[in-house]
Design goal:
The structure holds two protein chains of two kinds. Chain A is mainly alpha-helical. Chain A is built from 17 helices and two strands. Chain A has a two-stranded antiparallel ribbon. Classes of the chains: A mainly alpha, B alpha+beta.
């Protein structure tokens, strides 16, 4: 945490703070020096906190009406939609809230990728973030199973069967996960339990994520280390609070649009049919936020290798701080990386698109090329680029490029001096 | 004396850790094992099916252990097709004779060995089954011929109780 000293003004405040320094913490959070050039891509941390709180509050209220039993789950969800006061609203917020959560987290992750926020000294923040992302996927997947519709049931069947790819112990693990020989009531009740637990694990990790962030402080669009507090920083309150608040309002408009005008557009009609273990829907498609990884899974013709490729695609992100060898953080000063960054964005979007399409013909070919490129980006492009790329001169401070008119005019810190 | 004392202490530490680990394992195991299939699930291990109404070329699907089981009465063409396949063309080589003891009856789990979807009947490039999830094709013996599934559809333990009743499990 920052090194500033704080003494409460009131006598009681001082007495309390000496015993539990909550007021010091509050003071640290309000005064926390923040780079003054943070743009709107930096507001998604706050937006994500809002998403998490929204999911927890709506989830708690839904749990008061939901029944986790294979014979009653589907009906209890319809009961929530039709009978419970404002049940439709709470459920639509919760269901679309998951999509909004992922929308925000993808923007948050790609912001880190663009501005190099994962690089030293912020590796731990990044890795905690990846763990949060994994837990989010687990929570979203298990939550999707709870309504016990056709997509719930078959989504659960397909995803749990991924573990059967493990040699020798695979089948035992799958039966253990199911609590039986197929997805059934024991599976539903344990998924409900874990779905209830994970958000609180995420909440704990968010605290660590922010704690780890407050040690080095925020990265910024220029990507340079700054002195704190200095001319380059502003206090978190009111400056960032207002900016985050404004961005949050804009985000809530998008959120509300989905909830009130097209609450089912991100879902699948098949999930309004009750689960039937005898019939698989014609098209099993995961929720949109898992599609790129689904495309990677399907692009590999071997079962075990497909699962390995899909998991590697996620876990490779954790190694990113060491795969990216460039000393320059921000893509603003990395002309080549900037181009590869946008190719990666396009690549992931293409993977998402083909993930929703049938795995055959041209779609399969595209999925394979895009999968290969995805790994190429992290395993070849990023390590090589750090050595080969001719980066642009980096300013000495945030204030200078603003006062000097352009980043190039104050090129005191050239690439050579940075690389020793 | 001085070099003996730490040795005794080391022994005590090691013994404590070992007992502690056993104790921790004894506590953790029930918490893990409670998730395994329970007695009531295991009790539903077998089911009997009346197949007297199944005509050649028809498939019925019954539920066994929460999973669909296909019971197909095959036509002579299908049997001939299944038996004429060369072993080297198969991803998971199994003779049709071993999969269907009575050639007319094919009994197997209607579960795709890729990720567990239910394949569709009379579909696919090999006149057998086709899995809509990730495009696996099975032949008239339920053997994997094309697509990501690694194995043939599983033949469960079953027997004819009499001419009309099949007992699965």
């Amino acid at each position: 945490m920052s090194d500033h000293n704080y003494t409460p003004k009131s006598k009681f405040g001082k007495w309390f703070n000496d015993r539990l320094p909550l007021l010091s913490l509050a003071s640290h959070l309000t005064d926390y020096p923040t780079p003054k050039n943070l743009n709107y891509w930096w507001t998604f941390g706050g937006i994500l906190t809002f998403c998490l709180i929204t999911q927890i509050v709506t989830g708690l209220t839904l749990a008061m009406h939901y029944i986790a039993h294979a014979d009653m789950a589907f009906e209890s969800v319809e009961h929530i939609m039709r009978d419970v006061n404002y049940g439709w609203l709470i459920r639509y917020i919760h269901a679309n809230g998951a999509s909004m959560f992922f929308l925000a987290v993808y923007i948050h992750i790609f912001r880190s990728l663009f501005y190099g926020s994962y690089k030293s000294p912020r590796e731990i923040i990044w890795i905690i973030g990846i763990i949060i992302y994994l837990l989010m996927m687990a929570a979203a997947f298990m939550g999707y199973v709870l309504p016990w519709g056709q997509m719930s049931f078959w989504g659960a069947t397909v995803i749990t069967n991924l573990f059967s790819a493990i040699p020798l112990v695979g089948e035992g693990i799958v039966n253990w996960l199911w609590g039986g020989y197929s997805v059934d009531n024991p599976t539903l009740t344990r998924f409900f339990t874990l779905h209830y637990l994970i958000p609180f694990l995420i909440l704990g990790l968010v605290v660590l994520h922010i704690w780890a962030l407050h040690v080095p402080g925020n990265n910024n669009p220029v990507g340079i280390d700054i002195k704190k507090p200095s001319k380059d920083t502003v206090p978190f309150h009111p400056y960032i609070v207002i900016k985050d608040g404004f961005a949050l309002l804009m985000f809530m408009i998008v959120f509300a649009f989905f909830v009130f005008y097209s609450p089912n557009i991100l879902g699948h009609a098949d999930n309004y049919i009750e689960a039937n273990p005898m019939v698989t829907p014609a098209h099993i498609v995961p929720e949109w936020y898992l599609l790129p990884f689904y495309a990677i899974l399907r692009s590999v013709p071997d079962k075990l290798l497909g699962v390995v490729a899909m998991l590697s695609a996620i876990l490779i992100l954790a190694a990113l701080p060491w795969l990216d060898t460039s000393k320059i953080r921000s893509a603003v000063f990395r002309p080549l990386y900037k181009q590869f960054y946008w190719i990666l964005v396009a690549d992931v979007l293409i993977l998402g698109y083909v993930g929703a399409m049938p795995a055959e013909g041209l779609y399969l070919l595209i999925a394979r090329v895009a999968t290969a490129y995805y790994f190429l980006h992290f395993l070849v492009v990023l390590p090589v680029l750090g050595f080969k790329e001719k980066t642009l001169p980096v300013p000495l401070s945030i204030t200078e490029p603003i006062l000097g008119g352009s980043a190039n005019m104050v090129s005191a810190k050239s690439k050579e001096s940075l690389k020793k | 004396m001085t070099d003996k004392k730490p040795k005794r202490r080391e022994f005590l530490f090691t013994a404590t850790y070992a007992i502690g680990a056993v104790g921790a394992g004894a506590v953790v195991w029930p918490l893990i094992d409670q998730m395994n299939p329970d007695a009531s699930v295991k009790a539903l291990a077998s089911t009997e099916v009346d197949v007297s109404s199944v005509t050649p070329g028809k498939t019925i699907t019954v539920l066994w252990r929460g999973k669909p089981v296909f019971i197909r009465r095959r036509t002579q063409d299908e049997i001939a097709e299944a038996r004429s396949v060369k072993m080297e063309d198969l991803k998971h080589p199994e003779k049709d004779e071993d999969r269907a003891r009575d050639p007319e009856w094919l009994v197997m789990l209607g579960v795709c060995t890729h990720l567990g979807c239910v394949p569709l009947n009379d579909k696919g490039d090999y006149d057998g089954w086709f899995c809509p999830c990730h495009g696996s094709h099975y032949d008239t013996s339920g053997r994997i011929r094309k697509g990501p599934a690694p194995l043939n559809m599983e033949v469960p333990k079953y027997e004819f109780v009499n001419a009309n009743i099949i007992k699965i499990g």
